[in-house]
Design goal:
The protein has 491 residues and is an alpha+beta fold. 24% of the residues lie in helices and 23% in strands. The longest helix is centred in the N-terminal third of the chain and has 28 residues.
């Protein structure tokens, strides 16, 4: 009996214990998810692993921050080196195509008139003035510090002429009377690039000038509801800094990357879902601030990652996904989200892509046989009848040298497409374009892109593309190497 009573007591105690057990509360927000504890021991391999990921993830953010700092040195809108528009909390506009010999920005085009300006929205909002562009294609692209586009202002969106207000993430004011709409950025740092289409004729060059003079970005405190005009041909010139190499200005220095990243992360808040990533990277940055050995490991990791992981992304074959016939194209351009690989790849090769519905970018380093394009050969790109890129805006094919700059040539020609009025179509209605150092013949020269006698790349742009380009139903033609008999070889 005594044993039976003992068993019952124990059983009751167990049941009571189970009845009193409580569910551990499940996290309902990122703030409730714990991160690495401060002071946690870290092996060198762990620091290298986190550092490598942080370098890929943060490369674009540091790049943007350093560009903005450089623009902030411009006391007024100006032309850097006499060729590149620069401005801070304002806009600076060109009056024609960007100079072909500029070496500051990789992969520009010669289809539009560019403007450029960086903005610090922590001071005050910026007024954006839009003239009536009529039927002309135009787009005002605005990117946050992650290079995600934050606005829909342009011809594809039916934007009306007038005034718009660009505000930072924490702005709580009310727009004054006369403002059509408000655009809110996710970061205080914003980069703006107006693009205004201009065809390749002196007449259109003159026709676009009155519109360019009405493009304006300025602080809200100067808004009076009146249209402002600027003669952009009178912009002052400021000297360019010494070049540090053959390619685009190096905005990311691996030696100082992890010294700069903590401040950048404070300026750029995490996207929803990125909080744990910030905690993970931040724990290593905090440890490096206290431990010289960890700091040195991060520096060495950055140097290795730049060489092994970032530099290869300069090649188009490692950017985006296949678009068919040896071409590649990004998918999330201008709306990267957590697509860190392609965000960084684009920042390395041709920073600041428009959103897909604004522009589809398609590029290649290779011919139809998978061989690197080289100007010592001649290539033909044939669009079948009715198969030039289907767009509501315009399209162009641009040739770049191995540094993604224009190749100087006697024709002063760097792209072909909608803007060109002298293109010759074949008898069957198809269009063949040629690329190479040698002219394809006098009768074909109107369709020729002169190339350097070394490596080069081709870049196809489709502004305001039809759905067939966006979803991949339309595919770019193969780049065929021309044999000795003048015939293109196909796969």
């Amino acid at each position: 009996m005594r044993s039976l009573v003992s068993f019952v007591v124990v059983a009751l105690a167990m049941l009571l214990g189970e009845a009193q057990a409580q569910q551990v509360p499940l996290p309902k927000s990122s703030a409730e998810v714990p991160g690495p504890a401060p002071g946690t021991a870290m092996t060198k391999a762990y620091v290298q692993t986190v550092g490598r990921m942080a370098y890929l993830w943060g490369w674009t953010l540091v790049n943007t921050t350093n560009r903005a700092a450089a623009f902030a040195k411009a006391s007024e809108p100006a032309l850097l080196g006499g060729v590149l528009p620069v401005a801070y909390n304002r806009i600076a506009m060109l009056t024609g195509y960007i100079a072909p010999d500029q070496s500051f920005i990789a992969c520009p085009n010669q289809d539009v008139v560019y403007g450029a300006g960086f903005f610090g929205l922590d001071k005050e909002p910026i007024v954006i003035q839009v003239p009536d562009f009529g039927e002309r294609f135009w787009i005002y692209a605005l990117w946050d510090a992650r290079t995600d586009e934050v606005s829909k202002i342009g011809k594809p969106y039916g934007t009306k002429p007038g005034f718009y207000l660009l505000v930072g993430p924490n702005w709580t004011g009310s727009p004054p009377t006369g403002i059509n709409a408000v655009v809110r950025s996710s970061t205080n740092a914003v980069f703006a690039v107006p693009r205004i289409f201009m065809d390749d004729t002196p007449e259109d060059h003159q026709a676009v000038q009155p519109l360019l003079r009405q493009i304006s970005f300025y602080p809200l405190s100067q808004f009076d509801g009146k249209t402002k005009t600027t003669d952009w041909s009178k912009l002052p010139h400021i000297p360019a800094p010494p070049s540090s190499g053959k390619g685009e200005t190096a905005w990311v220095n691996p030696d100082t990357f992890f010294d700069e990243l903590p401040a950048v992360m404070k300026q750029v808040p995490p996207l929803p879902g990125e909080e744990s990533l910030y905690n993970w990277i931040g724990s290593v940055l905090d440890a490096a601030a206290k431990d010289p050995e960890i700091k040195q490991t991060l520096k060495e990791t950055a140097v290795a990652a730049e060489s092994e992981m970032i530099t290869p992304l300069f090649q188009w074959r490692y950017n985006g996904r296949s678009a068919g016939n040896g071409w590649n194209s990004p998918v999330n351009n201008g709306e990267w989200g957590t697509d860190y690989l392609n965000r960084t790849g684009t920042a390395k090769t041709n920073m600041y892509d428009n959103r897909p519905e604004e522009t589809k970018y398609i590029y290649t380093d290779d011919d139809s046989q998978g061989q690197q394009l080289n100007g010592q050969n001649t290539y033909m790109i044939t669009f079948a009848k009715g198969q030039v890129p289907p767009v509501k805006g315009f399209w162009s094919l641009t040739l770049y040298d191995e540094q993604h700059f224009f190749h100087p040539n006697l024709l002063n020609r760097y792209s072909l497409g909608t803007k060109n009025k002298a293109l010759k179509y074949n008898g069957d209605g198809s269009l063949t374009l040629y690329a190479g150092v040698k002219s394809p013949g006098a009768d074909k020269e109107s369709n020729w892109l002169p190339a350097p006698d070394r490596k080069f790349s081709l870049y196809l742009r489709a502004y305001w593309p039809d759905q067939a380009i966006i979803d991949g139903t339309w595919t770019p033609p193969a780049v065929q190497k021309v044999d000795a008999g003048g015939v293109g070889r196909q796969q």
